[in-house]
Specification:
Elements lengths: L7 H10 L5 H7 L10 E3 L6 E4 L5 H14 L9 E5 L4 H22 L5 H7 L10 H5 L6 E7 L5 E4 L9 E7 L2 E7 L12 H5 L1 E6 L4 E4 L2 H4 L1 E5 L7 E2 L2 E2 L5 E7 L6
Antiparallel strand pairs: 1-2, 2-9, 3-4, 4-13, 5-10, 6-9, 6-13, 7-8, 7-10, 11-12
The structure holds 2-oxoglutaric acid and fe (ii) ion.
């Protein structure tokens, strides 16, 4: 199944639970209706990588862009990145809270015993993960570090694994221009996580990040895969079509490791 297909999450649930003609049965078998902001797609080739395609409505995107604009970070062309540690602006705290809410709700729907995770696993991927594991959701602050990037057409970010000074659990919200983020296997190992098979090693996986979408990485996706955005002409192709590139803003939220 193509996890980038809009109906993928619904399809997974259908595979897991089947279609019941009996209304009473379906009350017990089907998870509750999914509000748009908590409809998640697992990127099935990459354990720990999930996409919430319609996380922010168009008006929420505009509000967020206005809040970022009001910070004045990008008023000169030479500035394309802002970082904050600790005390985040109010809008970023709200964003972080909404991400947590969507993850908790998503975990309840897609990743918990109510969703018969084992059935999901058997029918799709051998080890489908929760959106974020519980221990991340239990930490005092889910995120305390913010990076806002502003990319002009042609600009992107080289393949990398986020620094280990950040804990597990990374969230990226995309605004304005859509783009494809590519994931490729990192050479490094990480404690307790399996190394890739040869096939996985060779595969690069593209994920379409549309405006208003939220992508989250944990576990293997965060430690064993590099992510990259190449917006040079010819590289932003989705379903055979080159995406038109304009300015793109991304908001990355992470948690710094506590000092030892
Ligand atoms: O801009 C993005 O979408 C990705 C940013 C990123 O990967 C990073 O700052 O580490
Ligand atoms: Fe990154």
């Amino acid at each position: 199944m193509d996890s980038n297909d809009p109906g993928a999450a619904a399809e997974i649930l259908k595979l897991a639970f089947g279609e019941s003609s009996d209304e009473e049965d379906s009350q017990f078998l089907l998870p509750p209706p999914v509000p748009p902001s908590a409809a998640w797609d697992p990127i099935v080739k990459i354990n720990g990588l999930w996409l919430c395609r319609h996380f922010l409505s168009p008006s929420q995107q505009l509000d967020l862009l206005s809040a970022i604009d009001a910070e004045g970070w990008f008023s000169t062309a030479s500035h394309n990145q802002a970082m904050r540690f600790g005390n985040l602006p109010d809008w970023a705290v709200q964003l972080s809270d909404s991400i947590k809410e969507a993850v908790v709700l998503g975990n309840r729907i897609y990743g918990s015993e109510h969703c018969a995770e084992n059935i999901l696993s058997a029918s799709t991927s051998p080890s489908i993960s929760p959106i974020f594991p519980r221990e991340l959701l239990n930490r005092e602050l889910l995120f305390d570090q913010l990076i806002v990037n502003s990319y002009q057409p042609g600009e992107g970010i080289c393949a990398h694994v986020d620094l280990l000074r950040f804990e597990d659990g990374i969230a990226i919200v995309s605004l304005e221009s859509p783009c494809v983020m590519h994931f490729s296997r990192a050479a490094q190992k990480h404690e307790g996580l399996d190394m890739p098979t040869k096939e996985e090693d060779e595969a690069a996986v593209g994920v379409l990040l549309t405006p208003g979408s939220l992508v989250v990485m944990s576990g293997e996706a965060r430690y064993l895969w590099k992510h990259e955005i190449n917006r040079k002409p010819g590289f932003q192709v989705w379903l055979g079509e080159e995406l038109v590139q304009s300015r793109r803003i991304s908001i990355t939220l992470r948690k710094l490791c506590s000092a030892v």
